[in-house]
Design brief:
The protein is 14% helix and 43% strand. The chain has 159 residues and is mostly beta strands. The longest helix has 8 residues.
Length: 159
């Protein structure tokens, strides 16, 4: 390779992405969630989406094994605090948060601009990440507003 890992990250950072929080529930009933910017559509028929999760993430095992369903919550600009909360290694990130059941017992965050309730379809090796493909079972178009964006190593705005 003619580039360093830092140079690779800097180059990837030039691609603006939306920010989402993926939520799920373990078989013991505990809730889990992580902030992602790796969300992408895969297929319209069947409706498939994907995200990736770091193999070192505390919730990695839940997403690839324990839980068969998850909800991708696309955040709006005003929800930056949720992005930061689900990215930080804090004990109870759910304390005081408003959420509702997505129909599969998975917490769907309130106030997001869109959500995708999914059944896990496949898990693929992605190097230091696992790529999780979900079959979309339900969608919710939520609040209107500008999306929360990430660009160049920080949060960004449309305007």
């Amino acid at each position: 390779m003619s580039f360093s890992p830092r140079e690779f990250r800097d180059c990837l950072g030039q691609f603006a992405t939306g920010v989402a929080v993926v939520t799920t529930r373990a078989t013991d009933g505990s809730k889990a969630g992580i902030t992602i910017n790796s969300f992408a559509s895969v297929s319209l028929e069947p409706p498939l989406v994907l995200f990736s999760v770091d193999r070192m993430a505390a919730s990695h095992a839940i997403f690839i094994g324990d839980s068969k369903h998850f909800c991708i919550n696309v955040l709006q600009q005003e929800q930056r605090i949720l992005s930061e909360r689900f990215a930080a290694p804090i004990d109870d990130r759910w304390q005081g948060l408003e959420f509702e059941d997505d129909g599969h017992g998975i917490p769907r965050l309130v106030g997001n601009i869109a959500s995708f309730s999914c059944a896990r379809h496949a898990v693929h090796d992605g190097g230091d990440h696992s790529i999780i493909v979900g079959r979309v079972e339900n969608i919710t178009l939520g609040q209107t507003g500008d999306p929360l964006l990430y660009y160049g190593g920080g949060y960004a705005r449309l305007s």
